[in-house]
Structures are given as structure tokens and as C-alpha cells.
Amino acid sequence: MYSGRVISLDVDQVEFPDGSVGELEMVRHPGASAVLPFLSDPEGEDPQILLIRQYRYAAESYLYEVPAGRLEPGESPDVCAARELREETGCTAERLTRLTTVYTTPGFTDERIHLYMATGVTRGESHREADEFLEVETMLLSKALALVESGEIRDGKTALTIMYAAGFRVGL
Amino acid sequence: MYSGRVISLDVDQVEFPDGSVGELEMVRHPGASAVLPFLSDPEGEDPQILLIRQYRYAAESYLYEVPAGRLEPGESPDVCAARELREETGCTAERLTRLTTVYTTPGFTDERIHLYMATGVTRGESHREADEFLEVETMLLSKALALVESGEIRDGKTALTIMYAAGFRVGL
């Protein structure tokens, strides 16, 4: 139906598990990686993290997000995570730890996003793409969790990455 | 560009915060609700919940999910959550508690999903749509959290709803 810069849209004739056939709209996506950078020891009392505030046309506002972006052709998820971290925030990390991988919204897209946390982070200059408008913000992990609970963090992958890292890796 | 049964795709000329102009692919979606049903007291030791296993063409497999679906025209998120719970699992709930609302993947869609938990649940017969293939499965909340941690729960909204309810409502 459509093949574009980021996504393509197919309307597929699909066979369901019972053998019946139907039409399904499917947005094809190359997949993405996202990474939560820890600026202090994640084993510490209440570690400091970094988030971005990015302008999103879909939301007509700025959203708190973890650094993230699409896989380039042939790129592995961990290389993508390190690249997006560097491009969006200027940070480099000694270590990326994979958290999990989820389908963002499997009713209409095959997009999967690979979630990471980054430790041993060194800050530097960012190199944003021309259409990326974002600011970098540091905060305590406990504050980020409070923003998830209150709904001020409104991006799904960001809420999930923060809760996953805090609950299963940091123990906060 | 395309207007379909579930989604439509626009390629918009957008003005960015610095006044520059560019093209953006945007999947328009009516929004959705999802609900985690508690079969026992959520204040109890390790409450029992209900998940569905739904065939997803996007994943070419069955995914563990919370009952969920699209808002009908004019439908409020809580009415949608109760309807999807009833249609997909046959359950009715005395009480729906709103958890939070997130953008599923704001880089290319305006879809927002409203997350709920349901308590005081009575089980009954399900009424699935013709293209829904799913099974209902009960498990302890601790087991669901373990499946999120291990990555066996691969649906973003489901991982988020389970972690949010367990972390901020149940205290598990």
C-alpha cells in the first residue's frame, strides 16, 4: 500500500489459526533499541539517570523518553542502542545490559523494541538528527518512578524501561 | 495516503519547534484500553490474575496479553475496558481502577492506550470477534512478573500493566 522513510504499510491476506482468511493492516518497521543511562552506580541508594525531553508531533508536545531509535539495515540492537545514546545525548557507556524486548503494539505493527540499561556512562556532546528536538535531563531513579506513577511519563517504552530496570535490576 | 479498517496513514507536512518544515509518516489510531483482571483480592499475599494468549500475525505466534481493544467512536476508555474484558474473557468487574495512559510508540503513531486493573471479577462466557483467536489463562501475579522479567511476556502494554499494577497498586 505504501512504502516510506520510516515505515511501510501492507494490507495482507492472512490465514488465521482455524484456516479462515481475512485482511489485516500491518505497519512494517525495522525495529528499534532504547537505553536507560545510569550516571551513578545502579547499585547505589538512589541512582541518577538521564532522560530526554523530545518533541513528538504525535503528542503535539514534548515527552520524557529514554534515548531510542530505529535499527539501521544490518545493525544489531546493542550497536543501535549505543549509537542512539551517543547521538541523542553525547554519552558513551562502558557497559550495556539487555533488559528485554517487546512488541510496541502488535495489533497493527511488527515493531519490536530492545530495551537496555547503560552503566559506566561518560557525558559528551550530542549529535542530533535535523528533525530531532530534544533536551537532556538528569534525575534520580526514584523521581523517574514517581513520574511513571503520576502519568507524567507518557511514553510506553520509557515507562517500561524505567520500571523494568528499577524492579528487576536495581531493586528500587 | 490510506484509510483502513483499524488505522489510517498520513504523510504530514509538519512544522518543527524551530520553524523548519519536514515530512512525517503518522499512523492515526482511535486509541485503546487494556485491563488486568484480578481474580482474587489484590491486597492478598500473591493475587491471582487472568491473561489471554492471543494469536498475533505481527509476531507469527501467540502472545500473552491483557484483554484490550480499540475505542469505538464516542466510547470512553473505561467503557471500552469493560467491554473488551467481557468480550475477550467473559468476565465482568465490580470496579475498574485507572492506572495510567501511554503512547504505544509515538515516533509514528498517535495511538494512546489507557491501562486499568479490574477487581471484584465474575467469570462468564466470552464473545470473541471472528478474527480473534485466544485462550484465557489464570496465574499468580508473581508468576506474571517472572514472565515479564524472563521476556516470555513480549507485549509492551501487558508488561507495563503488570509491572505498574504490581509496583504501584499491589506492592508486590
How would you briefly describe this protein structure?
2 copies of one chain form a homodimer. Chain A is of the alpha+beta class and about 170 residues long. Chain A contains 3 helices and 10 strands.
* Class from helix and strand fractions of chain A: alpha+beta
Strand order of the largest sheet of chain A: 7-4-9-8
How can the largest sheet of chain A be summarized? 4 strands, mixed
CATH homologous superfamily designation of the largest domain in chain A: Nucleoside Triphosphate Pyrophosphohydrolase
Tally of helical segments of chain A? 3
Span between termini of chain A: 46 Å
**Shape field of chain A:** globular
Given as residue ranges, the uncertain stretches of chain A (5+ residues, pLDDT < 50) are none
Order of helices and strands of chain A: EEEEEEEHEEEHH
Radius of gyration of chain A: 17 Å
Largest interface: A-B, 59 and 59 residues
Taken together, the total number of domains of chain A comes to: 2
Strand content of chain A: 35-45%
CATH architecture of the largest domain in chain A: Alpha-Beta Complex
Q: Regarding quaternary structure, how should these chains be classified?
A: homodimer
Helix content of chain A: 10-25%
Please report the total strand number of chain A as a whole number.
10
CATH topology of the largest domain in chain A: Nucleoside Triphosphate Pyrophosphohydrolase
Q: Please give the CATH class of the largest domain in chain A.
A: Alpha Beta
Mean pLDDT score of chain A, rounded?
Answer: 93
